[in-house]
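Could you help me review a protein record that somebody else here produced? Do not assume that whoever made the record got everything right. The record follows directly below this note.
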Amino acid sequence: MITLVEKQKPAVATPLIDPFQRAVTYLRVSVTDRCDFRCTYCMAENMNFLPRKDLLTLDELNRLCSAFIAKGVKKIRLTGGEPLVRKNVMFLVRELGKRLGTGLQELTLTTNGSQLARYAEELFDCGVRRINVSLDTLDPVRFRSVTRWGDFDKVMQGIDAAQRAGIKIKLNTMALKDFNEAEMPDLIRFAHGRGMDLTVIETMPMGEIDEDRTDRYLPLSKLRADLQNQFTLRDLHDHTGGPARYVEVAETGGRLGFITPMTHNFCESCNRVRLTCTGMLYMCLGQNDAANLRTALRAGEDDGALYDAIDEAITRKPKGHDFIIDRTRNRPAISRHMSVTGG
């Protein structure tokens, strides 16, 4: 008697729709929690980083990203820590770059700029066309103060190299009371004078650091009011899929974005999830709930279990974050550092 063995059906990747009918099309991947800066508002100077043995391999990160692409993710942003300090990270960039035009529409990254001079041309060759560079001041002394270990000239060289390579840059600036609020007009003129957008961000209560965040918290409503004494700000209705609300600065012709996690909940159109270098998937930056994809990833070569784990996680995506600073104990709302999930 001949026994017919039914072939196992291939795993089917279905689109990611959260409980609030938002399509998840954007994946942020923290390839490392390590950084070559120690920005005062982000992490303590003496950080305890993850043991390297706990990190997913770059091949595993590539497989996870490929699963998300199969399930409808159109944009991937590589973050950290500082993504370009991970050894051989360009392998992952090259592999993901091959997916552009076959499901993936954009590959980008957020960087502190320290390694850009080295990697800018290769990033462009891999299909990266836009990046975000974090820059909080144009003063080299103040830059060293806020980053602790950063070299301002090296970052400027990196920005130069990226622009020469043809990569479009958006600057991200953390708004810090009594540090850079008076410098914002100069940062706007610098960015727009070089064809770069600028986005300012309120500090977020994530992870234990060496200072009191309440001392540095600058509401962007106040910053915007101050800027309107020098500039004409015209509201734009640009939708980039991100949390920023944009204005056009009439005097410079450039765009200025405001990200306000504390004074305005920006979650109504959230289309993103965040993957860590250990395989944890966070459905919201401002919540602690996470799904461990490592087990499903290593269960076998078939992606069925991985797809199921991703689907289950998306059913737990909340409507919005809940950033609150406990001012009685100066404790952050979220215990993990920003570098774990990459912002």
About this structure: Confidence is low (pLDDT under 50) at residues 325-329. The first strand starts at residue 26 and ends at 30. The longest helix spans residues 152-165.
